[in-house]
């Protein structure tokens, strides 16, 4: 028996962290949630600083980070403060920390050592009213505490109790932040997950980190040339920042089974390979009557996934434009990360890739162009004879069982991404994120 559930993204580093509507298996019926997590690839060593007044209307926190398979920030939580590292996930709501040390998850938060830690009873309005967008409803445990089960698209899951404690970001102290203190987790990629203490939920749901902080907006910029990045919480208005192009966030009033209403949903209108627009009707990008087919911006997912018909059209045009330039791997049994079935053989001795066609995602009001080597990704550890494998970084959602278009963080490199919650829109501009980070550290 299968059930569709509305899943939140869970960091599963290395694979992909998808925060999505997920197709759940029988596990769900016994209260274990599965989800496909595609993971943000940023590891952020973070220091929070208040941006000097004059450049911003109200104080904003900036967090420099480092990224690879996931985007992560470092914070401290509790009294006295404990260090934690959290994956930044715009695809899910509830932030959480591992609270139970196990061999798979050695990095934990210990609530017993925090005098400001407070579990949330299930009679609390936080438990009864603010968990309405959870895929699986919050419940009462035997101690009458609020219990949450989280579900991710990569078959990762996590459960524990809701609690609150003080979070410190640089000079800011945020009391009573609500998060999940998780006692049991299942990860499909424990190597990557073991590095992190938890996840920072950044979607539009009532208990997400940004909703609790009431930030009018937040932004991030992921460097394409090194492993740095910057997360800016709060308003930003910098003279050096190119004007952003905005695309509205799509909201629907009626709940639909496959539509995640608290995701950052934008409207994709087309895809170009070099300058050639794929011959697809706009309706190919519009959610159907079940809500399947929304386009989500997900920092918790590494690559980008497209519904079958759109993926097939893109694959075919990209193949066409790379024929004669690259050798295709002819092995139907090899599908990178279960969803990327277009890979190329590149001689190990060849230091650089040939010039590749760009792929442009065309949104209502804005475009995002993926160029250069970002279009392909070297499959780690894969060698065929004297060749390495490079796979196309766009995958087929259908192969993952995901009913949505998901824009992952790999395609957001060197793009200033602004999530404007007040005006319900996303702004973007191509920038050099390593330079933006340097300007910030100079206080510009
Ligand atoms: C990136 O992640 C991979 C897989 O976890 C790891 O092998 C590699 O060392 C990382 N690179 C950097 C620069 O952190
Ligand atoms: C927490 O992080 C700070 C800054 O990186 C470091 O100096 C300190 O030793 C860390 N504390 C623990 C207990 O790891
Ligand atoms: C941003 O800054 C410019 C010039 O510094 C100013 O004219 C503009 O009103 C500011 N915008 C906002 C939203 O504060
Ligand atoms: C690429 O597409 C063009 C135009 O549709 C077609 O004429 C050409 O034969 C295709 N090339 C390959 C290698 O498929
Ligand atoms: C790999 O390269 C070496 C040295 O050029 C050559 O001797 C060998 O035959 C090649 N192997 C394959 C499988 O092509």
TrEMBL record:
One of its GO terms (biological process) is proteolysis. The lineage of its organism: Eukaryota, Viridiplantae, Streptophyta, Embryophyta, Tracheophyta. This is Peptidase A1 domain-containing protein. The active site is at 89, 298. GO terms for molecular function: aspartic-type endopeptidase activity. PROSITE patterns: ASP_PROTEASE, PEPTIDASE_A1. SUPFAM superfamilies: Acid proteases (SSF50630). It comes from the Eukaryota. The keyword Protease applies. Belongs to the peptidase A1 family. Keywords: Aspartyl protease, Glycoprotein, Hydrolase, Protease. Residues 71-429 form the Peptidase A1 domain. CDD domains: pepsin_A_like_plant. The keyword Transmembrane helix does not apply.
């Amino acid at each position: 028996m299968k059930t569709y559930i509305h899943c939140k993204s869970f960091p599963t580093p290395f694979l992909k962290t998808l925060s999505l509507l997920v197709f759940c298996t029988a596990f769900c019926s016994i209260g274990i949630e599965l989800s496909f997590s595609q993971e943000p690839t940023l590891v952020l060593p973070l220091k929070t600083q208040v941006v000097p007044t004059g450049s911003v209307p109200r104080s904003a926190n900036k967090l420099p980070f480092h990224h690879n398979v996931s985007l992560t920030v470092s914070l401290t939580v509790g009294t006295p403060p404990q260090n934690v590292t959290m994956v930044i996930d715009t695809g899910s709501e509830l932030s959480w920390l591992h609270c139970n040390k196990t061999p798979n998850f050695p990095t934990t938060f210990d609530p017993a050592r925090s005098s400001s830690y407070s579990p949330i009873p299930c009679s609390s309005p936080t438990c009864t009213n603010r968990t309405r967008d959870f895929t699986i409803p919050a419940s009462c445990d035997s101690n009458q505490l609020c219990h949450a089960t989280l579900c991710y698209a990569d078959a990762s899951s996590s459960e524990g109790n809701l609690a609150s404690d003080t979070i410190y970001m640089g000079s800011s102290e945020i009391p009573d932040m609500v998060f999940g203190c998780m006692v049991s987790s299942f990860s499909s990629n424990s190597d990557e997950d073991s590095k992190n203490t938890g996840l920072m939920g950044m979607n539009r749901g009532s208990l997400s980190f940004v909703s609790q902080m009431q930030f009018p907006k937040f932004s991030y910029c992921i460097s394409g040339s090194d492993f740095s990045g910057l997360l800016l919480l709060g308003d930003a208005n910098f003279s050096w920042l190119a004007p952003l192009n905005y695309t509205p966030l799509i909201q629907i009033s009626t709940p639909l089974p496959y539509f995640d209403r608290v995701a950052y949903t934008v409207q994709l209108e087309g895809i170009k390979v070099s300058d050639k627009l794929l011959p697809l009707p706009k309706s190919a990008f519009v959610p159907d009557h079940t809500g399947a087919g929304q386009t989500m911006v997900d920092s918790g997912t590494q690559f980008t996934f497209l519904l079958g018909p759109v993926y097939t059209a893109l694959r075919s045009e990209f193949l066409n434009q790379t024929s004669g330039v690259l050798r295709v791997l002819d092995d139907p049994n090899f599908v990178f990360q279960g969803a990327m079935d277009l890979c190329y053989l590149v001689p190990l001795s060849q230091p650089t890739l040939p010039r590749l066609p760009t792929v442009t995602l065309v949104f209502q009001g804005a475009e995002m162009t993926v160029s250069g080597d970002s279009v392909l990704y070297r499959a780690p550890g894969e060698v065929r004879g004297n060749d390495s494998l490079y796979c196309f970084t766009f995958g087929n959602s259908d192969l993952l069982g995901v009913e949505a278009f998901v824009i992952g963080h790999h395609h957001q490199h060197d793009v200033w991404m602004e999530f404007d919650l007040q005006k319900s829109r996303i702004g973007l501009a191509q920038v050099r994120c390593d330079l933006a980070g340097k300007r910030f550290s100079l206080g510009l």
